[in-house]
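Thread: quick sanity check before group meeting

JM: Hey all, I'm pulling together slides for Thursday and realized we never actually wrote out the predicted structure for the chain we discussed last week. Dropping the sequence here so it's in one place. If anyone has concerns about the input, flag it before I start.
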Amino acid sequence: MSVDNLANHSQIVEAAHDLVLHHVVAFPTETVYGLGGDATSDVAIERIFEAKGRPADNPLIVHIAERAQLRDYVKEISPLADKLMSAFWPGPLTIVFKHNGHLSKRVTAGLPTVAVRMPDHPVALALIKAAGVPLAAPSANRSGRPSPTTAAHVYEDLNGKISGIIDGGATGVGLESTVITGTEGTVTILRPGGITKEDLEAVCGPVLTDPALKKEDDTPISPGMKYVHYAPNAPLTLVKGTDAFLHKTAEAANEKGLRVGLLVTEDYLLSTKVHKKVVMGSREDLTTIAQHLYEALRAFAEGEVDVIFSETFPEAGLGNAIMNRLKKAAGGRTITETGN
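JM (edit): ok, ran it. Output follows.
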């Protein structure tokens, strides 16, 4: 069904009405489900933070339906930004611009910049058009939990806290958008996502990665020192090394009497005795890992296991985004096999 036809769909019409009244509505995008509110309304943005239980000191990404809409909210669009939009919009690329003050200050967190993207999902585009305003839309989950890739995930986290959910089926990419800045000069990745560094460099030349992302490789002095996001219902530890080392690590925890969860790919063929094993895709196709990662993290119910051990992946291409999310979910807990 086209975006124009969707505009008259009863769910779109009802949700757009709620958005105009400054309520918040969850909707599907090609990355994850977003929790949308009028980006020009302080009331709507406050409702987003309240529903998520999220600290209000973080800026939110603004979603638009047409490139022409961008000029209403930013000071200028550089030729490089224009080139990147032509290459990747609509799609999972968020670009940071200098704003012109027409958005809620709660969206920009008082910063002179705003992050904007155009989602590549017919329901999202139809909803933004029908509402007639740009939508601030962080992931539609309780703060700290894995992002939602189905309407059921949203219901699990936010039932009773928001006006409604538009069910558009499972999302496609499965991870949030890539966020970049520096379109007046050298592009820098602030958050890896569905558009890889290699994708960007094919369009605009050399691309930098924010040094703050690389600091996540530092060994923490103690658990809890790092910001935890996307966290499952039990402590997650990343295991860097061979399948045999992961097997040995899980078996050692078993011997201590712990209920062990294992987060692996379908390529892991060892017969490890664990309380629960969740498969999240194939190493041979990282897009399957991205699509199922959050669902896999959510698969461990509260109190079901005591610890979770996960495979890790090469940090190149889409592997950068996958490992970024896994590291945040693990809060910096990593065990590395000697010699790897």
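AS: nice. The two ends are 50 Å apart (CA to CA). The first strand starts at residue 25 and ends at 27.
JM: adding both to the slides.
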